[in-house]
Amino acid sequence: MISTKCQLTPTEARTERFIDNTNNLEISLQAPETWNSGSLSATILKLDWKVHSLITASDDVSTFFVVMNLPSLVNLVLPLGQGTGMLSEFLKNYVSLKSEFEVTLSDGSSEHAYLIDVTPKQIEEISSLHSSLNRTVDAVLIFKEYLGSSYLIAYGTSSGKLEQFQHQFQSILNSITFKLIS
User: Fold this and answer.
1) Rounded distance, CA 148 to CA 181, Å?
2) pLDDT per residue as tens digits for the range 1-50
3) Would you say residue 102 has pLDDT above 90?
4) Residue 111 burial (CB < 10 Å; 0-12/13-18/19+)?
5) Residue 96 burial by CB count (10 A; 0-12/13-18/19+): exposed, middle or buried?
6) Collapsing DSSP states into helix, strand and coil, what is residue 106?
7) Alpha carbon distance 151, 153 (integer Å)
8) Which residues contact 45 (CB under 8 A, 6 or more apart)?
9) If pLDDT is split at 50, 70 and 90, which confidence band does 127 have?
10) Helix (H, G, I), strand (E, B) or coil at 48
């Protein structure tokens, strides 16, 4: 368990970054020194999507933070989905939507955030693969648009522990940068 003193001390961190060649952007964040971190790239041919992401997680992966680019189709539907509430309704089909709120990112942009929880049964329903997740996870989803491209920022931990890691999550969230590559 993390003590209050630990939560109030500055987070030692290292910079992780990835290049989103599709959108000519460099995305970086400050990962806590005591967490594992790295980047992941993959291609999903059916969606014509070259996935680029940054991931940082605690040793037991019970606490995580992810930034990833989204397929180009999302660029078209995200503003409409958020503006009409359809995204909230979509999310409710797959996870438990606990609340919605606005968050200001370090670049000054105001983004809409979704506080969700996901049970092991919901994970199995979403994915055809058997999940090794055996606990409910509380998570925050933030959809960020930058220069016509969409990104997902997600962070979470075991149910009921989100507040315990709020300092670390806020530090990472504040450290995210998007930089155009010339």
Assistant:
1) 15
2) 322 232 333 446 688 888 888 888 999 999 888 898 888 888 888 878 88
3) yes
4) middle
5) middle
6) coil
7) 7
8) none
9) low
10) coil
Tokens describing residue 67: 């930034």
100 Cβ contact list (under 8 Å, min separation 6): 88, 112, 113, 114, 115
Bridge partners, 44 (sequence order): 49
Instruction: Give the chain as a DSSP string.
Output: ---HHHHHSPPPEEEEEEEETTTTEEEEEEEETTSEEEEEEEEEGGGTEEEEEEEEE-TTSSEEEEEEE--HHHHHHHHHHHHHTHHHHHHHTTSEEEEEEEEE-TTS-EEEEEEEEE-HHHHHHH-SSPP---S-EEEEEEEEEETTEEEEEEEEEETT-TGGGHHHHHHHHHH-EEEE--
Give the whole-angstrom CA distance, residue 34 versus residue 42: 26
Give the helix, strand, coil percentages of the chain, each rounded to 5: 25, 45, 30
pTM: 0.86
**Which one-letter amino acid corresponds to residue 170?**
Q
